[in-house]
Amino acid sequence: MSQATLYRAMKDERFYCFTSRGKAIGRAYPSWQFALPVPELLAPALIQMTDLPNSEIHAF
Hints:
Elements: H1 3-11, H2 38-48, H3 54-59
């Protein structure tokens, strides 16, 4: 998957990323979300959490 494709998928709320505490830039994408069947199950959950802070999404 190209970086552009990954960023587009994240913008479409199909994947989750976070910026490490204390850093202003740099995204980390947990690897567990790329293993089947997680991608198809994760997108609907992320859409429901759109308004939550990243810390709560990460805790989920």
